[in-house]
Write a structure and sequence with these properties.
alpha/beta, Rossmann fold, 7-stranded mixed β-sheet, 11 strands, globular
Length: 174
Amino acid sequence: MSLTGKRVVILVAEQFQDMEVMYPYYRFKEEGAEVIVAGTGSAELYHGKFGYPVKTTTTADKVDFKNVDAVIIPGGWAPDFIRRFKAPVKLVSDAFKAGKVIAAICHAGSVLVSAGILKGKTATAFMAIKDDMAAAGANFVDKEVAIDGNLITSRNPDDLPAFCRAVIAALEQK
C-alpha cells in the first residue's frame, strides 16, 4: 500500500481506451491511492472504445490541482474530446507547473500539446501523434516509458505495466 494518502485523478471522456483507464484505476487503488475519475462535464457516464462504461467521480473543473498528487490521461479517442474543454487542459497545465506527476499514454500526448507543457521535454506516445508532439517542442522517443521530471509518458496498452510502475515510483518519492 505504497500510495496510501495519495490522490490520483484519471481524466476521461467518450471513447477512452478501456485498458488505459481500468488498468491504472485498479493498480493505483491496489497501492492504496484515492482514485478520482474526472470527466469533462459533458456526461456522468462515458464509454470506452470497446464499450466499457465508467462513471465519473467529479468533473475536471471541480478538481483543485493543489489537492492531487497525479493526473493520469488515458488514450483512445478521448484525448480529442478532453482537449476541447478548458478545465481539463488547465488542470493538466497547472498541475504540471506545480510539480505534480502528469502521466499520459497513447493518444493522450495531444492533451499535453494543448496544455503547452512539452517544450524541451522528452516524451513518447502513439506514433500517430509523434509529429504533433515534436512540433510542440518535445524530444520524441520510441520506448515503453519516457520519464522527464514530473512528466511520464507511454505509447500504448502494451506499455501499461511499465507506465504504472513509473507512476507509482514517482508518487512514492513525493
